[in-house]
Specification:
alpha/beta, 291 residues, ten-stranded mixed β-sheet, 9 helices
């Protein structure tokens, strides 16, 4: 597994919260990585100077850079993490993705940037998550300590396993729990209690077999990836809702999900990944294979 040497963080210097920068500095310090701080000034009106009596409007790049330097100085007191600052004009998601390629970064960190109590993901963060060719860490919460409890939903596919290995690589001291939700067969909304059959299928026996198969696959995954904690969840009528309920009720501070990297994170977990991003208040790490 490739080491993380360069991290890019999208930062809004005018926000009072320093959570995104705090978390990124923690990750960079743990991995002895170099940090590139990207601040984007979205100024579509610059192309219409007539709004300002024909005067050309310029961005105070030096002033913004000084503000960022002040934040860094307060949080990176011993200069343990080498930092560079980039200020650009344009759309935040486009600039962040472009700079990540230009600077040959290994990971992107971005804040969720939303005030909604129902949707825990802002537009820019969602766009970056969809389009990134790199792993993306989305920070949603206040930062006090390094991550301690990580949960990794798994479907036992290659990308899911790689996401767990990646998390172990950058957070080697953290406990990771692999979680698998198995599909339970329901007939017309009524759970089959054993006496119900459908074209010769004993549904109770079918559900037992599915659960047993999930347990065996999870046991093998835990052994292969040297994970000590795992959990099988009854998917009930809706496996996605069962998984979200489990994550939201737990004391997890990070969820890890995988992506094939070709068509975005939805390629692996489909609507489940999208729901985890939007509907859980927990920080999310999306693993994309690094080229």
């Amino acid at each position: 597994m490739k080491k993380i040497k360069r991290i890019i963080v999208g930062l809004d210097v005018f926000k009072k919260s320093n959570n995104v920068l705090k978390r990124t500095l923690m990750v960079a310090k743990q991995n002895k990585a170099e940090l590139f701080i990207i601040h984007t000034v979205e100024t579509p009106w610059l192309s219409v100077p007539s709004y300002f009596a024909g005067k050309e409007i310029t961005v105070d790049t030096k002033g913004i850079t000084k503000k960022i330097e002040k934040k860094i100085k307060a949080l990176n007191k011993d200069n343990e993490v080498p930092c560079s600052i980039v200020v650009r004009e344009g759309d935040a998601d486009d600039i962040l993705l472009y700079e990540s390629k230009l600077l040959k970064a290994d990971m992107i960190v971005i804040g969720a940037n939303t005030k909604s109590k129902k949707n825990f993901l802002g537009t820019t963060a969602e766009k970056v998550a969809h389009q990134s060719h790199l792993p993306v860490l989305i920070v949603k919460n206040r930062v006090k300590d390094p991550y301690k409890n990580i949960v990794a939903p798994t479907d036992f596919q290659v990308q899911s396993k790689q996401s767990i290995l990646f998390a172990k690589n950058i957070f080697p001291a953290v406990k990771i729990k692999a979680v698998h939700t198995y599909e339970t067969f329901y007939a017309e909304g009524i759970y089959a209690a054993g006496s119900y059959t459908l074209e010769g299928l004993d549904i109770q026996e079918y559900n037992k077999a599915v659960k047993a198969s999930g347990k065996n696959d999870l046991k093998k995954l835990m052994k292969d990836l040297s994970i000590k904690k795992g959990k099988i969840i009854d998917g009930e009528p809706n496996s996605k809702e069962a998984l979200l309920k489990y994550i939201n009720k737990g004391s997890y501070d990070l969820v890890v999900i995988g992506s094939r990297g070709t068509s975005g994170f939805k390629a692996l977990l489909g609507s489940v990944a999208s729901s985890i991003l939007r509907e859980t208040p927990t920080d999310v790490l999306i693993y994309v294979p690094i080229d």
